[in-house]
Amino acid sequence: MASSLFFLTIALLSFSCFPQPHGKTQPRPFILPIEKDPKTNLFYTSVRIGTPQHKMDLVIDVGGPFLWYDCNNSYNSTTYHPIPCGSKKCPGDSGCSGCNGPFKVGCSNDTCGAFIINPLADSIFSGDTGEDVLFLSNTKVSNILSGCTNSDAFTGDYGVLKGLPKISKGILGLARTKLALQTQLSLSHNLPSNFALCLPSSNKNGLGNLFIGGAPSLVPILKQNNDSSFFLTTPLIVNPFSTAPVFGEGDPSYEYFIVVKSIKIDDEVLNFKPTLLSIDNKGNGGTKISTMQPFTVLHSAIYKPLVRDFVKKASDRKIKKVAAVAPFGACFDFSTIGRTITVLDVPTIDLELEGGVHWKIHGGNSMVLVNKEVACLGFVDGGKEPKTSIVVGGHQLEDNLLEFDLVSSKLSFSNSLLLHKTRCSKLVSFFPIPQGVMMS
Ligand SMILES: *[C@@H]1O[C@H](CO)[C@@H](O)[C@H](O)[C@H]1NC(C)=O
Ligand SMILES: *[C@@H]1O[C@H](CO)[C@@H](O)[C@H](O)[C@H]1NC(C)=O
Ligand SMILES: *[C@@H]1O[C@H](CO)[C@@H](O)[C@H](O)[C@H]1NC(C)=O
Ligand SMILES: *[C@@H]1O[C@H](CO)[C@@H](O)[C@H](O)[C@H]1NC(C)=O
After folding, report:
1. Fewest CB within 10 angstroms: 84, 127, 259, 268, which?
2. Model pTM?
3. Which protein residue has the closest C-alpha to ligand 3 atom 7?
4. How sure is the predictor about 138, in pLDDT bands with cuts at 50, 70 and 90?
5. 160 CB near ligand 1 (under 6 Å)
6. How many Cα atoms sit within 13 Å of 3 on the Cβ side?
């Protein structure tokens, strides 16, 4: 019942906004809500898995290879099927697992293993690959392959859920892999292999959205702004060397890399060794996007001039510097910062990307309010030898609409939606159902 109501809403939307030729049904993307956890500054969505349905809050990891969840001692599901070792559905290199029983989810013999990766934990965990039903915003999807691991087997600081929001029970990986949810849904539901992300800046203002299988057709602002200045596009490139904690020989990275050509602060180019911006013959360097880093992490040789030049330009605006608050390196007296449409009037950080487009980071995305008096530049020092020179993190992605198009391998981005007097929580409203109709 619930699922047909959901489809009805989507159908209403399509009729009210963009009439389709009669009789032609276009596959509809999935829309999931995104919440921000104030403690970890990570982002999670909510799905339901199995029979009976278990609500699972899963952290969104654009660089994660698949969906995994906690099948702890108290978890079971009657619709679960472990994937046998050697089956075509078994990705292969993660071994075979067995269990002394009794049989339950995560305890079966001759089962295709899974390397469970939580980038915030210190180890890689063993788990199983299995198939079960998944409910995405009330739509039931069968035969979704995912990983599961029993958190009761790894306790304390060594836990598989380490560093994740307290409420969350796993990770939703959206990397460029066969098992990533968007890849599975694109095959089973005939959707384009892409997803779009709009991360909320705080839950006080409502939820953000994850769109799987195409955002633009559902986002009115993209219809109203049919010009190429709203969505800017840059190639997504493949780092030929894996950046994962476990990988096969010769595997490329499944994370999303883009090419930054230069960085400017208020139109002045930052001075650092340009080779840091390219990927070398070991896969080091370059720029990737990660939702598992709350703040952008920069190679020291980029971070230091960024902080120096930002402080200088801020002082030109009579913004007063105060003692730094870790992990940040430059903080300011909040009362000396002016207000703008993008929240705070601070120097603009401009990433010039491949294709000549500019990702402009304004106050709302560059500054973090650490308390009522102090606002800090929300970038952190990644040290002298990080694998990747620039890891664009969550805070810098908030209230930007980003579309990862895996078919043509490009990233489209809106820049701050605040410039368009909107934010992620206002892009589409689909809870409760009647609100959705208001979109037209
Ligand atoms: C097992 O997971 C369920 C929900 O997925 C949770 O309610 C329960 O507290 C967990 N049990 C333990 C021992 O962590
Ligand atoms: C888990 O569910 C399966 C399938 O319904 C059932 O055969 C099994 O006995 C259950 N295991 C436990 C430990 O409850
Ligand atoms: C796996 O096989 C072993 C040995 O045959 C058996 O003792 C155990 O009960 C089996 N486990 C399950 C979950 O069926
Ligand atoms: C946007 O405009 C172009 C030409 O101006 C047109 O070809 C295209 O169909 C329009 N796209 C949408 C989504 O309306």
Report:
1. 268
2. 0.90
3. 100
4. confident
5. no
6. 8
